[in-house]
Amino acid sequence: MESTSIVDSVKNGIIGTIKGTGEILNAVIDTVSDVLGNTLTSAGEVGSAATSAVSDVARGVIQGTSQVGGDLGQAAKRMIVGMLRGTKEVGGEALHTVGSSVSALVRETASVGGDVGGAATNAVAGAIHAAKDVGISAGDAVATAVSSAMSAVGEVGTSTTDAAAGIARGAIRATSQVGGELGGAAKFTILGLFRGTKDIGAGAFRMVGDTAEVLVTETAEVGGSLGAAALSAVEGAIEGARELGLDASEAASAAAAGALRAAGKVGQAATAEVTNATTGVISGVKVVVKAPFNA
Fold first, then answer.
1. 199 with 247: CB under 8 angstroms?
2. Does pLDDT of 112 surpass 80?
């Protein structure tokens, strides 16, 4: 299927369904799944065809949703679900689809002046919701989606710090909704941030600390274990720093400090729990929280 016809098929499918039923969310999932699945089946080779088709599908989703005044963020979330379902039907590589879909959504949202941070957040949430359905690791889905979202956000000139906070909140909420492991979501969110921003300066550690704070705060909101979320955030910071050749102890300290800032706002018991979880040697790194952590 040619590029222009893919865009039009998705756009017109969404618009037509909404005009007929008024239901935008299912329209996005069903239209994207059908068009992508048919395109890949016709192409005969999933890998290269998926790469070229994904951006066209994303453009059709954003254009169609914009024309009917729909919520671009929610459309982004449903698009990822539809993308993965469509790829699954023809044996596609799901993680590749996650990464390319998230990137395309962020770029297309920016092109129509939409909320880029919201699109990134919802795209990550969509990947989490769809992961189990297509048989991929929730952790891999989170890390890939976050990495792709942050990379694309940086390309379109949106604040990566603001986007990171929204993405972290969305990752915890989505994981909670699907009954997933919140600690794992925290770890792979931090790891994805490192991979997506590739910031080798002090800004990386500030972002890690701020994101760890959001992760623990959101975990408290959904009733999860603050100690587990804090420990996992530190583990993700250490792994991410090592991948980029950064100081793992500095990254761990930043994550622990952010987690403790969040715990301090919850109460003494939370502070004790997070302190115990982030004190000592973690993943071979001695974690030292630099006071004052609540500054």
1. no
2. yes
- Stronger pLDDT, 65 or 16, i.e. the higher one: 65
In a domain, 78, yes or no: yes
Which residue range is the domain that position 79 belongs to?
A: 3-158
Q: Does residue 213 fall inside a structural domain?
A: no
CA distance linking residue 140 with residue 131, whole number of Å: 9
In a domain, 100, yes or no: yes
For residues 212 and 264, is the Cβ–Cβ distance under 8 A?
no
User: How confident is residue 281, by pLDDT bands cut at 50, 70 and 90?
Assistant: very high
Over its C-alpha atoms, the chain yields an Rg (Å, rounded) of 19
Per-residue pLDDT for 37 more than 90? no
For residue 104, pLDDT beyond 60 = yes
Per-residue tokens: 165? 């906070």
Q: How many domains does the chain have?
A: 1
Residue 53's pLDDT is 78
Q: Is 48 a residue whose pLDDT tops 80?
A: no
Question: What is the distance, to the nearest Å, from the Cα of residue 279 to the centroid of all Cα atoms in its chain?
Answer: 28
Tell me how far apart the alpha carbons of residues 177 and 171 are, in angstroms, rounded to a whole number. Answer: 10
- Asked if 108 contacts 59 with a C-beta cutoff of 8 angstroms, the reply is yes
Q: Are 217 and 170 in contact (CB under 8 A)?
A: no
What pLDDT was estimated at residue 70? 78
Sign of the CA dihedral with 239 first, then 241, 242, and 248 last? negative
Mean pLDDT of the chain: 84
| Residue carrying the six token digits 């039009």 | 8
Residue 154 is assigned to a structural domain of this protein: yes
